[in-house]
Structure to design on (184 residues):
């Protein structure tokens, strides 16, 4: 092993010193990155993502949609994203417009009506518009899409509830997420 003798900052991101809301979001996302990334394993995509999101927060600021985009994108990069293309129980493909599906938190993805337990314990209602946003965000590599996305209060609550439940159940989400979103 090499001994680290010196380090210095290469990117200062001055705006994060002035915008405390963006700094809180950056802090939460760095905490999430730290907890999700395996120690000692090189992961260049995650490193690039970290620089990209910190640069974006410094330049453009933060919003709840940017936090949700970053969460969905990071989960996708690490192979931990919720399954949104097929039923997480039976594996059947689901149509893009799926009014009859729910999100199974324990199974980590969408679940068709035939596979939903009765009562629907651990299954959240997934509005079609929120599902479409999350699917698009998982595929888009630029956070600009999240900044341009206008969410209604109901959409934001549904997305926050869904992603929060998924992160809490599968990844033991920290209190930092709640604090960052409350600040926004």
């Amino acid at each position: 092993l090499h001994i680290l003798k010196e380090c210095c900052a290469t990117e200062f991101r001055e705006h994060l010193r002035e915008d405390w809301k963006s700094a809180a979001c950056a802090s939460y996302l760095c905490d999430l990155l730290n907890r999700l990334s395996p120690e000692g394993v090189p992961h260049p995509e995650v490193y690039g993502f970290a620089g990209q999101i910190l640069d974006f927060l410094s330049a453009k600021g933060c919003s709840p949609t940017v936090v949700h985009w970053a969460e969905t994108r990071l989960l996708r990069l690490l192979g931990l994203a919720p399954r949104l293309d097929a039923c997480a129980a039976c594996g059947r493909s689901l149509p893009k417009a799926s009014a009859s599906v729910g999100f199974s938190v324990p199974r980590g993805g969408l679940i068709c009506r035939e596979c939903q337990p009765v009562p629907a314990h651990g299954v959240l209602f997934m509005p079609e518009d929120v599902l479409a946003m999350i699917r698009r965000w998982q595929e888009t590599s630029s956070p600009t899409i999240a900044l341009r996305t206008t969410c209604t209060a109901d959409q934001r609550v549904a997305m926050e509830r869904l992603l929060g439940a998924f992160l809490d159940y599968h990844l033991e989400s920290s209190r930092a997420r709640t604090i960052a979103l409350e600040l926004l």
